[in-house]
Amino acid sequence: MSDHDKTPHQPSARTWTRLGLGALGGLLAQGAALAVAELAAAAVRPQSGPVVAVGAAAIDRTPAAVKDWAIRTFGADDKLVLQLGILAVLTLFALALGAFAARHRRTGAAGILVFGVVGAAAALGRPDSTGVRDALPSVLGAIAGAALLYVLVGLLPPARREAPGERGEQIEQEEQEEQEEQEEQGGGWDRRRFVIAATAAAAASAGAGVLGRALSGAGGREAVASRKNVTLPPPGSRAPGVPRRAQVGVDGVSSFFTPNSDFYRVDTALVVPKVDATTWRLRVHGDGVDRERTLTFDDLLRRELIERDITLTCVSNEVGGPYVGNARWIGVRLADLLEECGVRRPSQGGPADQLVARSVDGMTIGSPVEDVMDGRDAMLALGMNGEPLPFDHGFPVRMLVPGLYGYVSACKWIEEIELTTFDAYDAYWVKRDWAREAPVKTQSRIDTPKPFARPKTGTVMVAGVAWAQRRGIDKVEIRVDDGPWREAILAAEDSRDTWRQWSYAWPATKGGHTLTVRATDRTGEVQTERRTRTVPDGASGWHSVVVTVE
Q: pLDDT band at 189, cuts 50/70/90?
């Protein structure tokens, strides 16, 4: 039986070959598009690449509950998972589009341009967009991908000719024109030409991608060099020495100071901004600002610096979660800077009750002006644990306000401070159903033993941390199963703005047990048992672990 004798419902081997190779062509075209876009983004800016732009747009439009689930499930890998998901979807579409192009060459190749439009729209729609140039990587990548797919499909074995009427007249005419064009270009199926073209395309895409990555990295060299050249002056106001007994001597308890490499990172930046400290500027303006100012990094270094131990807490931290860390920070007292600009607290007649901090990546964070200027050590931080801020944590400058969750206080890569009102402006997270104001809740956590541990009978040390920034921890209690609450031994307190470690010697008996912890802050408020999720203003409830004593 010849190909022409087969029914439309029985594709020939040639047809299957053409579809399969078309799908391969689609995959190669996707690779070329992404590689060219990566190369172009290196020339424009890394945040303009289509995967990053679409990923950022997806983050902006994701409901708060879904974001919270992603952070809870994937932790610091949530951004990697998002980008891998985008690439997986692109791959599936590329395969389908390539197979479609095998039957409809021009239409299929043009389909890749749609992805360019999506990427360009996402890049232009970002809060930190620099203008039309941000669309170039997506557009150039799409053009390269479409051209490659068109060429590769032209090298496939000719599609079988079907009887008149088997398909729509328009489709028949399109395929006939493509077959005639293929025949004019040499006709037939030249396997070697296709393999050479596909291999060359793959190699060129890989090269362009590698070059793009290298150039993007080189683009941040000035920022890296500027950080290396920073020497933090001695603070005018040093932090008191940490009490000798601030760290309990129990294995498994978090270090009193969290190393920079272990400090939690929760933000929306798919590409960590690399900001050159020598060109960085901070603008202070808005309602009640009598004297607008624009400061350089050197301006801040010349001011009196303060050094403080402060525990930061992310609002996405579940009960017993890891998104809390303690560090020694060096920076400029924010209240002093605002007062120099003429800003007054609302309680003193100031017109602004919200300070909106803007990051170089477009993030906006709103903090209560009253809290920033009430005497606490709110600061523009320049250093962390004895060194300039790491890029992941906001170099060259970030904001800190002790006692507030990070989403309403801890703007990284800050470049602007605007004084306004809560009624006039909703910051990024408030627009996504989080509370306008969010003081840190009294919380405690069991660090050891770990859940489902199997300790031996006898004395088992139960230990962990508790925090209630601005109030301090007065008491921590442990309960075994449904027994009475027993008071734990508190480690020495560094300050009310840092977490406090605790320990309890438990006479463990054989069998399964549930250990529960609760804390009481200095106001007398006992940590609530009522379980709530993180949205809208932080999780609450008691932390418990289940162990089996052998």
A: low
Does residue 6 register a pLDDT over 50? no
What are the tens digits of pLDDT across the range 114-158?
Answer: 989 999 999 999 888 889 999 999 999 999 999 999 999 999 887
pTM score of the predicted model: 0.87
- Long-range Cβ contacts of 260-263 (<8 Å, 24+ apart): 260/327, 260/384, 260/385, 260/387, 260/390, 260/393, 262/325, 263/325, 263/327, 263/384, 263/393
Average pLDDT, the chain: 92
Tokens of 229: 């050249």
Structure tokens at 419: 């004084």
Q: Rg of the chain's alpha carbons, rounded to an integer?
A: 30
Top pLDDT among 468 and 17 is at: 468
Longest pairwise C-alpha distance within the chain = 94
Determine the Cα–Cα distance for residues 158 and 345; give it in Å rounded to an integer. 77
pLDDT band at residue 2 using 50, 70 and 90 as cut-offs? very low
Nearest-CA neighbor of 326 among 267, 247, 385?
385
Query: CB of 191 within 8 A of CB of 17?
Result: no
Cβ pair 156, 194 in contact under 8 A: yes
DSSP-assigned beta bridge partners for residue 490: 502
**Identity of the residue numbered 114:** V
Measured at the alpha carbon of residue 514, what is the angle toward residues 513 and 519, in degrees to the nearest 5? 140
- Spatial CA neighbour of 539 closest among 317, 377, 352, 338: 317
Dist. CA 48–CA 480, nearest whole Å: 54
Average pLDDT on 381-394 reads 98
Q: Which residue has the tokens 């890296």?
A: 224
For residues 478 and 489, is the Cβ–Cβ distance under 8 A?
no
Q: What is the mean pLDDT of residues 302-316?
A: 97
| Distance (Å, whole) CA 274 – CA 394 | 9
| Beta strand spans in 59-188 (E) | none
Token pair of 134, please?
A: 């941000």
Would the pLDDT of 178 be above 90?
no
- Residue 498 pLDDT > 60: yes
DSSP per-residue codes, 10-69: S--HHHHHHHHHHHHHHHHHHHHHHHHHHHHHHHH-GGGSHHHHHHHHHHHHS-HHHHHH
Helix (H) or strand (E) holding 207: helix 191-219
Task: Answer whether residue 160 shows pLDDT above 70.
Answer: no
Of 312, 266, 284, 263, whose CA–CA distance to 438 is shortest?
A: 312
- Checking 407-411 for CB contacts under 8 A at 24+ apart, the result is 407/314, 407/315, 407/365, 407/434, 407/438, 408/315, 408/365, 408/366, 408/367, 408/368, 408/436, 408/437, 408/438, 409/365, 409/367, 409/378, 410/312, 410/365, 411/357, 411/358, 411/359, 411/363, 411/365
